[in-house]
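Running this now, will post back.
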Amino acid sequence: MSKNTKIPEERKKKIPKGLIYLLALIFIITSIFAIIIFVPQPPPSNALFSISIRSYTTGYEKSYYSEYSTTIQTNLGEIGINAEVKSTDYATFLDKVVVNKDYDLAILEFEIESAPHLEVLFRENASLNIFNYKNNLDNGYIINKIDLAEKTVDFDERRNIYFDIQTYLMAKILPFVPLFTPVNTYAYWKQVNNFSAELGLSDSLPYMYLSDPSKEQLKVGIGYWNNIDPLSSQRTSEKELVSLFMDKLIKTSPDGTIIDGGLIKDWKFENETTLLLTVRPNVYWQPDVDNEYTDELFTIDDVIFTLNVFKSPYVNNEFHKYNWIKKITKVNETTISITIDADRETKINEPYAYALDDLSIYALPEHYLNVTGSWEGITSSTKWVKFSSYPFGTGKYKINFDETEKGITIIFDKFDNWHGAGVIPNVPTELSIKSLWINTYRDNYALLLSLQNNDIDFAIFGKDSQIANSLSTSEIEIQHSSSNSIVVLAFNLNNQYFGGENNYINATETSISKALAVRKAIAYAVNREQLNQGFHDEFYIITDTIIPYGTKYYYSGTEKYDFSIQKAISYLELAGFTAKTQNSETSTAPETFWFSLIAIILIPTCLLYTSDAADELDGVDLGGRRI
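Update: finished.
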């Protein structure tokens, strides 16, 4: 597959020192403007009311949440609402918003896998019901619909239920203002062929090759990582690394569709509550770090062990997600039968629509980890502890621990016994890239310079869509793909102005409540296009519901809250406020925004990203497993 193409001389040039000094100067100028921008402003004397916006400022993946807060503060000031920005570290943010729900407005990101699991957001007392959502707001309509969708096996019927949920949620409740579905950004030299951002690096590798046939190693730059234990890794960069050496039982496409490529080769529903799973033949485990186990076949016992791990409350904090697995029966050496029951309180077994989706989990090596008969003994064993630091799987590449420096550089070698099942139907696979040298970068600016300087071939910038636009050569390709997450401005439905008792008091001459009218006013006042243009060069996808754009349950027909000061004012008046704006419909911010605009123009070329939160994560995970 390789092509012999001469590498352009432009690639071989180093970055001029003058350019580095120029970028440093621009950074200093930007910092000065940032100080000007973020100096707290005194509340206006004629404010209708005052609230706060919580966000977090630190972490290894640039999020812009703090910058969002400042711009939204300006947006709300246009309709007479004084908003105080409260940006904290991630741990404090979690304590205030998720644990204690001590906030008015909050900006955060939800990661949602192929099965939406909205019950964790909208069931009373659920772990991520940060909105203080109560069933009496809608007489249980939303949660009843969610429960119905969970038991509806027919996909079209289930999708229509989710369309109803999104329609009602955005029109009648509005517990949040949906902002964006972020995009992931990749950049690489043109000698790297056949990469697809839609597939991601791991799923693209069986089809990729380098133009120089003498080169067998791909040098990759990635964000900070610290933990590659498949049971507990959570950062975006860590998940990327795990996907290179592990395989999931069931494979899903970016839009959530079940596809080939997983360790379960065949599945069949005998009826609505009985699922048969058959393992892929001729799959081998990689050797463990001590080479104690070599040439071990992946078997149905590994599947049973993996499911029992995820079902165990002793091991898995989210074991309740697997309560639908009532019984596992070994049919033969290649097949198991799972008895499904989505509701243990009924006498009959109830169907569960997300059975296959929830099996999109990494397989665990039973032969290595199942050392005793008790979970306490297993999880305290030397093997279990060692696996968390020296994991292995059935994937395309195996970790070369001898050459790996934790948190700095990780080396992968081609796994010669990889099963060869790719995700593109009827297209042969070949791992022509023999090894991966993956270096860690604690900020994307350093990653950008390393790529530009030809120190690496391939850069994963995460959700920073602006940084790659600073590249100064046409010999580097840039690709973007939508993520499986959504960024929202969350409402605390207990707030005295847009929640609390006002949830049950009708607004003037209308059937909607005063609280809902204020929430709609805020939604219309937030200028999402301004945020997207200023911070993401319009690459992010403005979304209108809780489901990420482009996934199979996303509904585009919900009520939309496009920026409109006039509509915002009208809803405030419905709520009983006498609201005025100092700016016209075409004006998007007071004079201080021009300072913001200048800084936004400069940011793409020089923004440095801090990494002083070693234990912080990228977002709140709705579908990933925290064990």
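The chain is about 30% helix and 20% strand. More later if anyone needs it.
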